[in-house]
Every structure is written in C-alpha cells, then in structure tokens.
Amino acid sequence: MINGxxxxxxxxxxxxxxxxxxxxxxLADDNDGGHLPRLGAELxxxxxxxxxxxDRVVFYLTALSREPxxxxxxxxxxxxxxxxxxxxxxxxxxxxxxxxxxENRVDFLREHFNEKLILFKPILNYETKKGRYHFNFExxxxxxxxxxxxxxxxxxxxxxxxxxxxxxxxxxxLLDGKPIExxxxxxxxxxPEFIICDGYxxxxxDETVFEKYNINSNMYICRKPxxxxxxxIPEDYERNMKMVHKEIxxxxxxxxxxxxxxxxxxxxxxxxIEDNKKVENEERxxxxxxxxVSQAGSVEMSVExxxxxxxxxxxxxxxxxxxxxxxxxxxxYNFHTSLKTSNFTILGGMSGTGKTQLAMLYAEALKIEEGxxxxxxxxxxxxxEPSDLLGFLNPITGVYTESDVGLVSFIYNASxxxxxxxxxxxxxxxxxxxxxxxxxFLSILELEGDQKKLRLFSKKAICVQxxxxxxxxIGDNILFVGxxxxxxxxxxxxxxxxxxxxxxxxxxxxxxDAYKHEVNENIENPKDYxxxxxxxxxxxxxxxxxxxxxxxxxxxxxxxxxxxxxxxxILDKLHEEMSSFDSQTGVSFRIAEQIGHYLDNIPxxxxxxxxLTRKTAFDYQIKQRILxxxxxxxxxxxxxxxxxxxxxxxxxxxxxxVLTSGERHNCEKSIAYLEQxxxxxxxxxxxx
Length: 688
What we know:
Blueprint: H1 12-19, E1 23-27, E2 47-49, E3 57-63, H2 69-75, E4 83-86, H3 91-96, H4 105-113, E5 116-127, E6 132-144, E7 155-159, H5 167-176, E8 180-181, E9 194-197, E10 200-203, E11 210-212, E12 219-222, E13 229-232, H6 237-240, E14 241-245, E15 248-252, H7 253-266, E16 268-269, H8 270-276, H9 309-322, H10 329-341, E17 345-348, H11 355-366, E18 374-378, H12 386-389, E19 391-393, E20 400-402, H13 407-416, E21 422-427, H14 434-437, H15 439-442, E22 453-454, E23 472-473, E24 478-484, H16 495-498, E25 502-505, H17 511-520, H18 526-533, H19 546-550, H20 565-581, H21 589-600, H22 614-626, E26 632-633, H23 634-641, E27 642-645, E28 649-652, H24 654-660, H25 668-684, E29 686-687
Parallel strand pairs: 17-24, 17-25, 18-21, 21-24
Antiparallel strand pairs: 1-3, 1-5, 2-3, 3-4, 5-6, 7-15, 8-12, 9-10, 10-13, 11-12, 13-16, 14-15, 19-20, 22-23, 26-29, 27-28
C-alpha cells in the first residue's frame, strides 16, 4: 500500500490526535526502492517539480522516530511509506528560510534539507473519491545532523515535564495515582518508555504501569509506582537529546539502550524512594507578621476549620475549571505566591487573556464579595492626581470629600475588621498615569507595622471626620491587585512603581489545549473535580480569614540570607550589565530581598511537596521584578537584550549570557521574555 488507502474516514477525534503528534524525520532518499509516490516530474527524486508541469515543488520525508500507534492501527501505515507535501503547504517555514526569494527552488531545498533532521507534524488529507488518505506534513524545525549514522538511526520520542514541576511533585502523583499531563505526548502513541522531570529520567515498563486516562488524551495515571524506576540525568544527556521542542525531545535507539543499562545498574523505584524517606520530626515553622492592630473581637477558627494553603490552591484551580477559564497551573501558583509576598501585584498581557477574571477568581476563592470586602475600581484615563482616587479635604468646610470610587471608606472598613480578608482590584490601571494618581500609595507600600498608614491630609489641617485624622492603617488583611495592557493606548510604569510590584505576564494556553479541556471536562462541583483530578477539596465553602491567610506567609527575616550563593551571583551580574547601560536601572536591595521573600514562600501541599521548583520560582522573579524594567530604543538596549532576525532566530545579548551560564535549562521563562523583547526591537525599533 502506498500512501494510505482506506475505505472510510476515521473519526474527527482520532484524526486530531494523530495531527497533534511530533515526528522526527529526514528527507527521503532518492531512488527509494519504489516507495516514492509518482507525483514528481523526476520520479526518483525526493524533491522535484510536480509532474503536471506547474511551478509547485513536491518533496517527501521519511520518519526516523516512532510513529503514532493510532496511525498504524487505524490507517495501516507502515514505516516505509513516506510523508508528502508541496511548497505551497509549508509556506510558514519556507518563508522563514527565504525560499521564495530563490530562483532555483528545487536546488535550494535539496541543499537546505541535506543531512538535516526535520521535526514535523503529520497532516491527514482524505480523498473522498478514491477513499484514500494522503500522509502530508507540516515542518516545524530543522537541525543539522551530528553524524552520518543519524540518517539510518531510529529515534524515540521522550516527553519532558515542564521545568516548573518539582520531581517530588511528579513522584507524589505517581504514588497517589493522580493524573499526569504530558502536554506534547498524547494517546495516539504507545505509553512513553521514558519521562524527563527536574533532573531525573523515569522509566515506564509498560502500559499496565502507566495507563492512559480517558478524561484527557494527554493524561496518564500510574497504577504500579513500585515498577517506575528513576536515575539522575547522565552527563551526556544534552548531547544525546535531539530536537528539543516545547515539552518533547528525541533520543536515538543507541542512547535508549545506554539508559536501560543505567537503569539496571543504578535505578531505584519511586516506591522505594518513598519508603526510604525519613519521617520529618519537626514541621515547617510558620512565622507571622506581628500586627499592632488589636485583635480583640476577632473570630478564632478551630484547627479543623482552617484551610491549608495546598487546599486553597486546589480550590482556586477548581473554580477556574468550573468556569471554563484556562490558566496554566504555573500562573496560578505564581499569582498566589506573588500576592502573599508582594505589596502590589500587576497582571499584564494581551487583551482577552483573563487578567481581570483571574483577580476576581482569587477573590471568589477567598470567599470575599464585591460590595463587602472586595472593591473593583475601573481606572479612567482622566485620573491624574491622588484626589481622583482618594478625594480631597475642603479647607473651608473641614469636610473630607471622598472620591466616587469609595477607596478611602473601603480601606477604613478593612482597618476596622482585621479578621476579614479584603481585596482592591485596579482594572486597566495604566490607562491613567499611575505615578500621578497612585503616588500616595507608592510612598507607603514598603512601610511596615504602624508606619503603614494612608494619610489623607496634614496633622494640622481641620477636618470634622476625626477618625481620618491620624491616617488609615493598611493592615495585612488587604491585598492590592492591578491589571494592565501594554500598548500604545496605555502609560508606562515607572521604575519606582516596578520596584514595588510583581508584574505577571499571563501565559496564554493554546486554543487546541483549551478546546480539549472544555470538551472533555465536566466539572460542576468539588466532587467532580476530585473524581477527575484525584485531589480532594476540603472545606470548599470556608471563608479565608486574615489569620488563616497570613499563616501561609513565612517571614524569615533573613533578607538576603534567603538567597543562595549562585542566585546572588546572578543578581550581581544582572545589576552590573543593566546599570552599565543606565545608572538608574538595575537590581536594588529592595528587589533582591523581595525575591528572597518570594522563594521562602513557595507553596507546598499538605505533604510538604512544593508546587513550583525553586529554579522556576527564581526565574519568575527575574522576569517579573527585573526584566520588566527593560525598555527603550534599539540603539539603547539591543546589546543588552539581543537580536532577532527571521533567518537566524534569536541571538542572545548580555543578559541572556548571564542567565544561560549556569545550570541546564536555567531561566527559560526569562530568556523567552528577552527573545520577545528582541522581536519587538526588530519590528518596531523600540520596546515598551
């Protein structure tokens, strides 16, 4: 059978599964023993003009990696059959390499694909008249072969879990039989033989150990953790991994056999690792910020009524899934940790990514309500001074006239109800000039204890509202969140504002992933969530008191002592590079201490397993606390940020050199952010 004869079409779902798969291949051989379809003017060539005499170029690829089991089972495809495409079907890639500027396009492609590995996705086209499938493809990446042997080597796809997931969390899911999502490896393939996570390789013996989970085509559940083995990533790991793309890579069969030998010599089962762990004698000490506000009359919660931090995070995820809102788990963990440790958190990103919805979702998870302990303020472009937000004191009548937004009364009520959590959301806050209307807040954001007071007028002024005279205390029971768009309609944040804020750019999930979750998930209540995610939400209706919330915050008092030596070294180098371009920009002591505070407060579940790796948390803080200050024209910052061009891609600048000089996969989110800045410089000549 040549190129997919089939009597009837397969289902839409199965076709989509196959077309989401990644395959590693190369250009097919000329004179390929009759396996080349007879579509070209030169029948024995892997790249040639179409036989009809038009200008279209047809070319064929041979798969080197394992192909989807579903493709073989449903369509009967064998490994000798090639994949077919035309130049007009791969315009996105060909445009990038300058193909359409070439006079002799066939020779150009033959040279370009010679001795190259090609990462592609299969595309299935059904010809109704002949009842036949054509196996087409979409090229994603091309990489030069290291050796001639790779032309005849076979490769194994290896899923890589997000670098933000700690090995302890992955192992906990294996042990507890909780769903594990492999974003770039789906059920069209056989169960993966290996999985990479946080510096380790895990070996999966067979599908009885690691079972496909029917809720989602990218999810799996471990049934026999005692058979899942683990080894540390060997020193030659990076050299032997080919075409690393998103959360998948490929390794040769020879390297696969070397890994198997390592597992036989050094492997230890996940269950054995768990059994060998010592029982911790002391629980993690939870230190609280001492508040000078009287707690008299506050409602004390019993131990049973308190909500653990891990349970709250599951509650937040449940509410998002129930409302069909798609946020990455990392964004939820990062937002929560930022709110715990920062006086002000800004949610940024393109319009429509759910910034405002996430802020309101967090309020709902806390069980706070608008009109009571939640204040939503839509910022207007006309806001130019503090009185637009707060109001003003009439010197003639002595009456303090509050702004229509009601912020002053809200903060005062929060100070009078210290047992309740409160939240203020400034929506689209940079429509106005933030440093002008928000100046009174900026000066007190970093103060502590009794000093953290909002003073509405001088002490000598005459005001009939005596309760305002000494100022309004801003306690640890109030959270401030802002949302912002970054485009030509908005104002820039000053370094002074950025110095005191975490700026989170939400990561948009793919529409394909969002659709998959929307179709497959049916979460209406906590029990549905527990059944699908295998995570029980305890006390789902319990409101989070300020005492409960602040029990999650660790105040170590270490300041710079919370940072490791290698982290301090990176911060020093970043400051040196940034300040050499602008003496007023860099890494301040305030920022370094706040980063340490964030790292101290990475949330854990009830078993002490962190939701984020420390490396990922540090990466987030560099992106949110430091790189957010980088903006300007190409002539000013290109050497700092790096260059981007369509043909060669991203060439890192001085900052990326600092961030990539350490461990494997170091600061990948920050590097991606710098690459985006470089693209903006290429396109606009400046970056905001």
